[in-house]
Design a protein that fits this description.
CATH class: Alpha Beta
Shape: globular
InterPro entries: Beta_cellobiohydrolase (IPR016288), Beta_cellobiohydrolase_sf (IPR036434), Glyco_hydro_6_CS (IPR001524)
Distance between the termini: 26 Å
Keywords: Carbohydrate metabolism, Cellulose degradation, Disulfide bond, Glycosidase, Hydrolase, Membrane, Polysaccharide degradation, Signal, Transmembrane, Transmembrane helix
Radius of gyration: 18 Å
CATH topology: TIM Barrel
CATH architecture: Alpha-Beta Barrel
Strand order of the largest sheet: 1-2-3-4-5-6-8-7
Largest sheet: 8 strands, mixed
Number of domains: 1
Structural class: alpha/beta
Active site: 126, 163 (proton donor), 303 (proton acceptor)
Transmembrane segments: 12-32
Family: Belongs to the glycosyl hydrolase family 6.
Amino acid sequence: MPRVLPRIGLAVAIVAIVGVLAAMVIGVGGILSQGGVASDNPFAGKTLFVDPASKAATAAAEEKKAGDEGDAAVFTRIAEVPTAIWLTPEKHPIDDVGGYASKLVDEAAKLKATPVFVVYGIPNRDCGNQSAGGLSNDDYPVWVKEIADSLEGSDSVIILEPDALALADECDNVDERLVQVGDSVDTLVAAGLTVYIDAGHSNWGPAAEMADLLNRAGVERARGFSTNVSNYNTTDREQYYANSISALTNGAHYVIDTGRNGAGSNGEWCNPPGRALGATPEPAKSGSAQDATLWVKPPGESDGECNGGPAAGEWWNENALELAKNAGW
């Protein structure tokens, strides 16, 4: 998952416009208000889907059954916030991921809600680190195509391969990654889906370097890019970084993960202590390259076996409670 690398240099370009967050969230998990939002914003006037089987919801049910009403209430409140659903080949392989995604789309359609998915199965994922895994070079495009086919005709949003471009140099497979990401963009966009290619975060490297990777990966064929996925940087810092990238990618739009950035970053990427839940999802006002803030990495799920955490992606009661407490929930 995202980490801080000693590669930060001088930004080549700085844009003057900093996206201003607006539009109220109606309820904790509800409708993204359209007031002041550009009509072409894919989040304008949309209700984001809440997965009733999320790990937070499961944890809430378990705590309630055990008689711990206090913890159950906290986990229920987290579970009520629309959060991205991660598609991984380890949990949903070829011949299974399509059915799983289709079921969620059907549930969302009944609620007239828009689901947000994270596609996270690229070969040599995370360079073999905490979130190691992914598919073979041959199987990966087949898996992505199954996802695209299952979501075709829906208004689903895709966050494509967190860390893949930001880690490409470290994984020593830049050219291969660019082809894999670009081909996935084409497959998913052809199905009518809104796609954001992940662009790391503001502590990772210069905006100009990421903009170059995004351009080479075909960001102009996607809606844009995502930042701060699974990281903790403040929203204003990410806006500055993302606006710099946007200026170098022909005005590409972007979304920011705010699920765990309420207290900003302490420089650590793997289960850092003292963090807090961030602002709940909402669209950005018109006049900005920013489309929305989202909860992409589910709060309460571990970054990996560090700072006392379980394996990456596993639910961690103590972490969820700390994030909520520090956010004043």
